[in-house]
Amino acid sequence: MLMSPCQLPPIGALKSRVVMAAMTRGFAGPGHVATADMAEYYGRRADSGVGLILTEGTIIDQSGDGYNGVPYIATPEQTDSWRQVVERVHAGDGKIFSQLWHCGRISHSDFTGGEPPVSSTNRAAEGHNRQNDKPFGAPRALETGEMPAVYGLFRHAAENAMSAGFDGVQLHMGHGYLVDQFFDARVNDRTDAYGGSVANRCRFALELLELILADLGPDKVAVRISPSRFMGELYDWPDLDEMLDYLIPALEKLGLKMLDISCANADYFETSGRVIRQVRSRWRGVLMGGASLSVEQAEQELSDGFLDLVTWGRHILANSDFAAKVSDGRDIEPFDPAMLGSLN
Question: How far is CA 219 from CA 93, 215, 216, in A?
């Protein structure tokens, strides 16, 4: 199933069920624009047989930045710069979604124009920020009335992605970034309508999604969540079962049709695979995940009906011809951190 062409509503025809997961690379040009090297980087993966590419996280506004050298999709110049990427991927018969990203408190005022990062909370993230070799900055908790303005940043970025020719957008709601800072009861300490209960902690995500779906339609919107991942140790959302019982039907009721359950650099079966088994019975749409799976395990997850599309990150970073190697039965080159220093 993995390397066979498929017709998968709502996304349509794909030449394989292999998905390139979003991975931060930090190779944007001056002004946070996409470059010709980035276009070739993604294009080589499409040429190889990857069916769907999810771009590296793409910042929707400077207030959401938190990394060195990452691309934006906020201004006309930044938007236009992505056209070469989209055209190159389409030339390789692939499809490509722009992953829309707001880092929230996983940032520092060094990246947000001197203003405090915004979040669900005013408590700084724990740990050391490798991007500027400082502690994470103290965030400012968004006021209740500010939510529509933040949604507006996402809507503007989504409109820009469509004008650049992307096949759709993926809303990054995982990995501890802004939307996840509302989901997570360990982080979200609010006492207004966006904090406390499960329903309140899901409100920010659902209000945002409803607007993006209304703007773009359900065939052009995916969501990434990460209810279980590895952060030095296994990390699940608090009240995981209750969150899934509420959130997954709510996403479907709004009309979402594509859901990516991500675990990043973690064992699939201990993290997202465990969640996917809970979600599958609640979710009738397209379900994607994977990351750490072998090709044989990926085939099994597809044939057992747990996944519709399989995501890989480091394997595809390390092997520009990953999908062709899978198709031909060739060995997959292992990922080496030294590979992060170039766009191969």
Answer: 18, 11, 8
- 177 as an active site residue: the answer is yes
How do 221-225 and 168-172 pair as beta strands? parallel
Any residues with CB less than 8 A from the CB of 73 and at least 6 apart, and which? Answer: 58, 59, 60, 79, 82, 98, 100, 157, 160, 161, 164
Amino acid of residue 84: Q
Domain membership flag for residue 141: yes
Amino acid at 187: V
Comparing CA positions, the residue from 2, 48, 42, 98 lying closest to residue 290 is 2
Residue 300 in tokens: 């099994």
Distance CA 64, CA 117 (A): 7
Element (H, E) at 236: strand 234-236
Comparing CA positions, the residue from 51, 3, 72 lying closest to residue 258 is 51
Q: At 6, is the secondary structure helix, strand, or coil?
A: strand
DSSP state of 285: S
**Range of the structural domain that residue 237 is part of:** 6-341
32: how many CB neighbours lie within 10 A of its CB?
A: 20
Q: Please, are residues 68 and 133 in contact by the beta-carbon 8 Å criterion?
A: no
Q: What total of structural domains would you count in the chain?
A: 1
pTM value?
A: 0.98
Q: Would the pLDDT of 264 be above 80?
A: no
1 in any annotated domain: no
Annotated catalytic residue: which of 42, 177, 194, 268? 177
| Distances 194 to 64, 119, 140, 184, 297 between C-alpha atoms, Å | 19, 12, 15, 11, 39
Q: Which two tokens stand for residue 13?
A: 């025809």
Q: Which CATH number characterizes residue 223's domain?
A: 3.20.20.70
164-217 pLDDT, tens digit each: 999 999 999 999 999 999 999 999 999 999 999 999 999 999 999 999 999 999
Question: How far, in Å, CA of 196 to CA of 202, rounded?
Answer: 10
